Every structure is written in structure tokens, then in C-alpha cells.
Amino acid sequence: MKPLAAVGRAALALLAVIGRVALFAASSLSHLVRPPFYFREFGHALLTIGWFSLPVVGLTTLFTGGALALQIYSGGSRFNAEAVVPSIVAIGMVRELGPVLTGLMVAGRVAAAIAAEIGTMRVTEQIDALATLSTNPMKYLTVPRVLAATLALPVLAAVGDAIGIMGGYLVGVTRLDFNAAAYMTNTIDFLETGDVVSGLVKAAVFGFIVALMGCYHGMNSGRGARGVGRATTNAVVSASILILASNYLLTELFFSA
Fold first, then answer.
1. Which pLDDT does position 210 carry in this prediction?
2. Is the pLDDT of residue 102 over 90?
3. Range of 141's domain?
4. Which end of the chain has fewer surrounding CB within 10 Å, N or C?
């Protein structure tokens, strides 16, 4: 029975972690609607998560859009379907690649930074000092970051979508000999409002996940430099996995029909 006992312990440990994360998320959501509100912390988090993440998101989506155009053209040429390049690049970027790449890039940059910052505060007992000063650490540290990431990610995804489509346009016009006006016409004609809305909703969910994982692992960081390093790694890994899993669930919800 020892192998079964090991499996059972692993399953119970996983369920315990899921329960702790769910309670942490519920606590964060409940504090969103209750004063006090720390607008300065929210503004700083919004600047750090949104504005400072724009270069990496822009470069990632630009090259992805160009590579996607080349791949679709190469595959479509086998079936004499090269004309679908503009529409598929636009739909692929807006529905999937834009939100997912934005979420993953921000997870690598922001979740690690949040976990390291809060984990260091945990190790140096600054979080205990906040509680001593009658300041709720959840409201002061977690809520501004979660709210800022949830609001900033859709904007970043929208900018990334536009840059990615522009990357496909540049490759299509300069490398694949598409007519510029025809390329833009096909891009606009085949995009629907539902495509854009679904991508922005995904981005908002991804932003919530990124900040939540960074704050959760930072708050539960172990002692010492090793504990902070482990919390940083766990924040990025868990945020990336949850982004990909929730992406499938949201895609099933929006497009299963």
C-alpha cells in the first residue's frame, strides 16, 4: 500500500495548495471593495506592470506576427491559399497569441518581481511591521497589484495585438509581395467584435492570475535567500501554467459553439 499512500499524500497536498490559493484569491477580491484604498500604491503598480512591460510585449508580438505571416504563407502555398494570410494573422493574434504572449511575458517579468519584493519583505519582517502599524498587508501589498495587473493586461494585449498585426503586415508587404491596401482590407473585414472582446477578457484574467501568484508566493515565502528564490521561481511557473490552463477554458467558453 506504500505506493498508493504516496499518491494519496501528493493528491492531498495538491488539494491543500489549491484551497489556500482559492482562499487567498477570495480574500483579495473581498478587499477590493472595502476601504481603505491605497491609490499611491495602485498608481505605482500600474506604472510598473503596464508601462514598463510595454517594450518586451511590443517586441515579442512584433516578431511573432511576422513569423506567423511567414508560416501561414508557407503552409497556405501548398493549397493555393496564400490570400488567407492577413485574416489568419489578425484572428490568431487577437484571439490567442496576443493575450497569451502578453500574459506569459508579464508573468516572467512581473510575477517574479512581485514575489521577490514581497518575499524579501516577509524575510525582513516588514510585513509584520505593517500589521503592527495597523495596516492590513493584504490591502496594502496585494490589492493594488492585483487590481493594476487586471486593468493593465487588457491594454497591453490590445497594443500587442496591433503591433503583432503590424508585424504581419510588414512581412506580408515587404517580403511576401502583398498589396498593402488589400492586406489591410482583408485584416479589417475578417475581424469581428467578439474576437477582440474575447482576447481582452482573457488578458484581464491572465493579469489577475499573474499578480495573484506573485503575491501569494511572496506572502508565503520561506526564510532566507533560498526561500525568496524558491518563491520567485514558483510564482513564474504557477502563473505560466495557470495562464495556459485558463486560456483553454476561456477558449472553450467563448468558441465551443
1. 94
2. yes
3. 38-255
4. C
CA 232 to CA 255: how far, in whole Å?
Answer: 34
The neighbour count for residue 69, using CB atoms within 10 Å, is 28
* CA angle (230 as vertex; 54, 220 as ends), nearest 5: 90
pTM of the model as a whole: 0.90
Residue spans of alpha helices (H) in 85-142: 85-92, 98-106, 112-123, 126-132, 137
> SS3 of 220, please?
coil
Q: 131: Cβ–Cβ under 8 A, 6 or more apart, which residues?
A: 137
**Count of structural domains within the chain:** 1
| Residues comprising the chain, all counted | 257
- The rounded distance, in Å, linking the Cα atoms of 186 and 257 is 24
Residue at 48 is within a domain: yes
Burial class from Cβ neighbours inside 10 Å (0-12, 13-18, 19+) for residue 70 reads middle
Please list, in sequence order, all residues whose beta carbon lies within 8 angstroms of the beta carbon of residue 248, skipping any fewer than 6 positions away.
none
Q: Residue 186: its pLDDT value, please?
A: 85
> Do the domain assignments include residue 191?
yes
Whether 22 maps to a domain, the answer reads: no
Report, as an integer, the average pLDDT of 200-219: 93
